[in-house]
Design goal:
300 residues, 16 strands, alpha/beta
């Protein structure tokens, strides 16, 4: 089960009831945080999340509302007792920015391992049994979107295992896909499992103007998290100039990519009540959530 929480839903500056946009994704006791703007560590605490579970940090881009909380977060991690490596991923050139931000927390009880991802193509790496992909977006500065794909094991069938007289001690190995030999018999995973389950996919894209490749990147997402600076289409041209999208554009991406659910986020501080646009955006993509800080779901 993958747990997803929106730490904040605001863009540009934190508001009393709206922290800056970031996402927490947790699986098997390990967590990934995307972005870390001002106050992120406070918002994480308010949502009852265990900061000590943080294993990797992904950065979309280096505008202040996405990275200015990094030093405080790292210090809080140290106070939580973290001693193992924290891996940080971001676009090419991000190492220098991170080092400069860390000048006020030069001594940490854990190592930072920084990985730079390309800006001219998609890339992927493995984390926590998932494939994490990045794609360059189109913002006013270098920016990346991310997706997570968990390829789940097929359903284990205890009755099949029992009918083959397989001891319980071998079940875990077989379920993981291994082939074992018992009394000269070759037992494969397929002999004790049922149907293959569909993968779980989460896609996260903020701070970009709309372009068609976003649809392919989000294809078949169980959860698409995408920005909506404004709910009114009259802002489309203005937002495109600044490298942002409005509600309807994210809804179109969700619809055309065959995503199952859309969470809107990264609202402009001037957008006081994003929920007043719910009916309009649901006409484009019914399963749209006008997200609030702390929005949560478990994907199974």
């Amino acid at each position: 089960m993958i747990g997803v929480t929106l730490i904040g839903t605001g863009g540009m500056l934190p508001l009393p009831e709206r922290w800056l946009t970031s996402m927490w994704l947790e699986y098997n006791g390990k967590a990934c945080l995307i972005d870390c703007g001002e106050g992120t560590q406070i918002a994480i605490n308010r949502h009852g999340i265990k900061l000590s579970h943080l294993d990797i940090l992904l950065i979309t881009h280096v505008h202040a509302d996405h990275v200015s909380g990094l030093a405080g977060l790292l210090l809080s991690l140290g106070n939580c007792g973290k001693t193992d490596v924290l891996k940080i991923y971001g676009h090419k050139g991000i190492t220098d920015t991170i080092k400069k931000l860390c000048c006020i927390c030069p001594v940490l009880p854990f190592e930072l391992e920084i990985h730079e991802l390309p800006l001219d193509c998609k890339s992927e790496f493995e984390w926590n049994d998932m494939t994490v992909s990045s794609m360059p977006l189109k913002h006013s500065i270098d920016c990346l979107g991310y997706s997570f794909v968990l390829r789940r094991k097929p359903v284990f069938n205890p009755q099949k295992a029992k009918s083959l007289d397989i001891d319980v001690k071998y079940w875990k190995e077989l379920h993981s896909g291994k082939t074992i030999i018992i009394d000269g018999r070759e037992i494969t995973s397929e002999m004790v499992t049922d149907e293959q389950r569909n993968p779980i996919k989460v896609t996260y894209m903020t701070d970009s103007r709309y372009f068609d490749k976003m649809i392919d990147f989000a294809e078949n997402s169980d959860l698409l998290i995408s920005e909506g600076m404004y709910g009114d289409d009259e802002y489309i041209s203005k937002m495109a100039e600044k490298g942002h999208m409005v509600f309807s554009q994210s809804a179109e991406i969700a619809r055309k990519s065959d995503s199952k659910m859309l969470w809107l986020t990264h609202y402009s501080p001037a957008l006081v009540n994003p929920h007043e646009y719910a009916k309009d955006v649901k006409r484009i993509f019914e399963n749209t959530v006008i997200s609030r800080d702390g929005e949560k779901c478990d994907l199974k």
